[in-house]
Amino acid sequence: MGKPDLGNRKIMHENTPALNLTHQAPVNETTSAEPAGLTKDSQGSFTRHIGLSFLLVGCLFFSACAKKTPMPEVLPPPVGFESPAFFVGNLAPSGQNLKSWSDMASTLRKSLLYVKSKPSGAVAVHGPNLTLTYGDLTRTLNRLRELLPRLDAEPGLLLQYFQWIEVNGGIDYSGYYEPTVKASRVRKPGYTQAVYYCPPELKGANGKRRYYDRKTIEEKQILAGRGLELAWAADPVDSFFLEIQGSGRLLFEDGTWVVVNYDCQNGHKYKSSGKIMREKGLLERGDIYEQREWFKKNPDRVREILNDNPSYVFFRLGDRGPVGAIGQEIAPWLSLATSRDVIPLGAVVAYGVNMPDERHGRFPLRGIGFAQDVGGAIKGRRIDIFCGSDTRANYVASHLDSKGPAWILVAR
After folding, report:
1. Which pLDDT value is given to residue 209?
2. CA 10/CA 152 separation, integer angstroms
3. Comparing C-alpha atoms, which of 131, 132, 140, 93 is closest to residue 112?
4. What single string gives the DSSP state of each residue in 11-63?
5. Residues 108-123: what's their mean pLDDT?
6. Could you read off the pLDDT of 187-214 as tens digits, one per residue?
7. Which stretches of 69-208 are DSSP H helices?
8. Which of 237, 246, 343, 363 is the most buried (most CB within 10 A)?
9. Are 404 and 351 in contact (CB under 8 A)?
10. DSSP β-bridge partners for residue 248
């Protein structure tokens, strides 16, 4: 993360930003929309009163039944291409695993540190319909920070104090997460896939120097014997997806683990494994979940597919979790990887997408996020949501490939 080739690796369909400055919420715009969901009457009614004691017993009986049969969870309405007012009317911090909007303060401060490190008058993004300086981004982040303590009670402040600049055509959403990879400190049977440190000759190249491609590194073992092995993974597919995510944890057999972060890349253009497999007619969707299932059933073709992606990522030992392009640790459901020419690093983004969910099938998520990361495959109108490191994060990142609305918030 924070380096080339480390955003979501799904196919990019559009590379030209199209932003609309005309769709701004009026200061007094409100919404009366109520969240839609299932309801259930658990109280019933009595048509006759045959004595106070009987009524009391009946009430106790129905009360006990109600405790045993919990009310169904009420979901917000599905996310669509909606007005900012409707979006805000159905926005809640719980959607991003927050108890309060104030809980995003530390993540907001990280964006502030980044934008304040830039000259205030320097242009952060420039296009036919939108130009923002780092001073604009600083002002926006400061305004949001001031309003955080009030937003729980007054979410409409987001409409009053910010322009909502819509990304025309919507956003292609995907997700990434922090994977855990089974590994060994020494090479031995069952642990033969090397996870490499960055070769000294690539240090500081930032992906601009062409180096050996994946097939050469893996098939000819061109780096073997140089002492560059950070560890040995049990599964080459796990190691490959570790490269895609850009950071993760190596879990050793004794139960200990280490964090590894992106260090450098071999300078070859990334090609999505999902795209490779669709082109070969092997998969229909090509999401990570479908890929993993195919790899399990076809272990003899794993190397063939992986080698068709010439890009290769090298790692270093880390002392903290995933780090974004702003140089700070990123946060689940708050940190977004974006394309700089559409949504600049440091921007505040209102984003909406129907998330894959094991329990409900789809969970409508409306969130306030921060552009804090980039990726080699994040081009044009695409957002890669950092989902965290737990089981749900793995599930969402493996399945998410949906379209939805997004707005860049700019302080009025």
Report:
1. 86
2. 35
3. 140
4. PP---S--EESS----TT--------------S---S----HHHHHHHHHHHH
5. 97
6. 999 999 999 999 999 987 776 789 999 9
7. 84-89, 105-116, 134-151, 157-161
8. 343
9. yes
10. 260
